[in-house]
Amino acid sequence: MPEIRQNIVTRDWVIIATERAKRPEEFVKRRQVKKELPEYRNDCPFCPGNEDKTPSEIYRIEQDKQWQIRVFPNKFAALNNDGTAERKREGIKRVVSGFGVHEIVVETPKHNLTPALLKKDQIKNIIKTYKERYNAIYNDKRIKLVTIFKNHGESAGTSLEHPHSQIIGTPITPSDIRYRIEEAMRYYDDAGECVFCRALREELQDGERIILENKNFAAFIPYAALSAFHTWIFPKNHSSCFGLISVEEIEDLAEIFKGVLCKLYYGLGNPDYNYVIRSFSKLGPSLEYYHWYISIIPRLSKMAGFELGSGMFINTSLPEESAKFLRDTKCPV
Amino acid sequence: MPEIRQNIVTRDWVIIATERAKRPEEFVKRRQVKKELPEYRNDCPFCPGNEDKTPSEIYRIEQDKQWQIRVFPNKFAALNNDGTAERKREGIKRVVSGFGVHEIVVETPKHNLTPALLKKDQIKNIIKTYKERYNAIYNDKRIKLVTIFKNHGESAGTSLEHPHSQIIGTPITPSDIRYRIEEAMRYYDDAGECVFCRALREELQDGERIILENKNFAAFIPYAALSAFHTWIFPKNHSSCFGLISVEEIEDLAEIFKGVLCKLYYGLGNPDYNYVIRSFSKLGPSLEYYHWYISIIPRLSKMAGFELGSGMFINTSLPEESAKFLRDTKCPV
């Protein structure tokens, strides 16, 4: 009998299709063989030596006179960072002029690396960069939401091979975000505690969906994961704002983040994935009812008409089995 | 300057990326050449002669002793149609046993046809079948939502070539649906009219995003279309329930539906697409604040990290230009 599970945090429902569920190994076979990439490409605007091919640098982390991380505006930005966020309403036409911020974070000088294969110190550099830019962009009063995300691989929407992530700051708060905030607030009002803290506590007690944990973070496949190997990384200490992450927490997050990406890489054969940091600072830096986290979504299945039409998902894997598979996946040190 | 537009009906926000927008013709070039299919395949369970390879038939439309449409349960159903929809709550585990209905609608006996190339009478047969099954499934008190949808082409999630659509009845109402209903209700309370009626009226007045219209239906690319060529078909007479569609309306819907699918087929070169009928009968058959409609989503771009993380979309086409392109697309009679 299939199960329809509800995620207590997002209120999303998912059909866990037990009768047509695949074993974790079956998700490996679906990958395509990836081509070998060179360490450097002359024609890649993100490779060292081609710094003049990108818009002016906003931020960098250097080591031994070589940049390790670079941040600059997206040359093909979806939004324009001069001007104002002017709102107009005329009948059904509700529009904001497309003011906003769209930045690129180049994650390593090496063209052929992938976050799973970076050293832990470089993952720390990436997290530090995210924190720096996150706080800087939220400082602009016109920005209402900062989304930090990565598209890894073609089916996750990447157009450039060189490892990079993106940061978009928009002058509006989308309704999806507002609904989540309202639901978290309602849970807090009803139950007297943060729904994320509760979910994490029970996931840790249950244990069977945990992938990795250390002092400050835990990675798990949620009870009602929407798709195969959909993974959440939660800070253990309640905090509503990623921008407040401490030095000690960055250390621990880097360990868990690298650990999960490595397990996906070696366990599933470098699948395409997206990740996103979910944190909403405009609510105030530290709220009792909201909890920031990272969501990693391997792109092992497609959203089809049912998902688009109902907002429900069909997951053809068992979260408990997938978590065990990743727990048992060994990575070379 | 890009524009951030809000859809008054769904409240979704979309970045219309004017600065990196493509011309309509550029979406054609992205298509892959499709392979030629035979009219009949011995190994296709949906082809005539192989009726014994499907679960027992629920419904059919015949002409000259040959079936034109067949409906039967999905052999690999996501949900199980015996048993009860039992709800359990234990800590964070909220689960409903996977009772539900999952049916296949074979749209034509011919393996190599596609809805765009079917005769109008056959499109009418498909709509009649949807109506019949929609009402029958909603009659089951355990079912809360019926989703009628089609996945056309690989990137839209099809696994079988033979033209077919699917109907899923779930024992729960997803929160996405609930939010939409609440927003429509709130608009109705504030403005005193159905938000869909208002949007349709203004789209018809504006005219520039209209693709086709006749007495009872209009097809248009909404002002804040989430993705390229995303098309809506609205009934002109207010009705909250697809199951109440009249014989005359079926005639008119078939004309518009075929017209739009043809224009997509010839204009864009048979793109992959999903369509879904959005109608919620559990609210009562005829509500003043809700309006059923059909949403057609050509899969010309990918959802990436930004969309997954923020619930906002980036549309690299201009709705006005896309609608003009489809209006101007001529189809062979």
TrEMBL record, chains A, B:
One of its GO terms (biological process) is galactose metabolic process. Keywords: Carbohydrate metabolism, Metal-binding, Nucleotidyltransferase, Transferase, Zinc. Its cofactor is Zn(2+). Binds 1 zinc ion per subunit. Pfam families: GalP_UDP_transf. InterPro entries: ADP-glucose_phosphorylase (IPR053177), GalP_UDPtransf1 (IPR001937), GalP_Utransf_N (IPR005849), HIT-like_sf (IPR036265). The active site is at 164 (tele-ump-histidine intermediate). Its EC number is 2.7.7.12. Residues 3-174 form the Galactose-1-phosphate uridyl transferase N-terminal domain. GO terms for molecular function: UDP-glucose:hexose-1-phosphate uridylyltransferase activity; zinc ion binding. Zn(2+) binds at residues 44, 47, 111, 162. PANTHER family: ADP-GLUCOSE PHOSPHORYLASE. This is Galactose-1-phosphate uridylyltransferase.
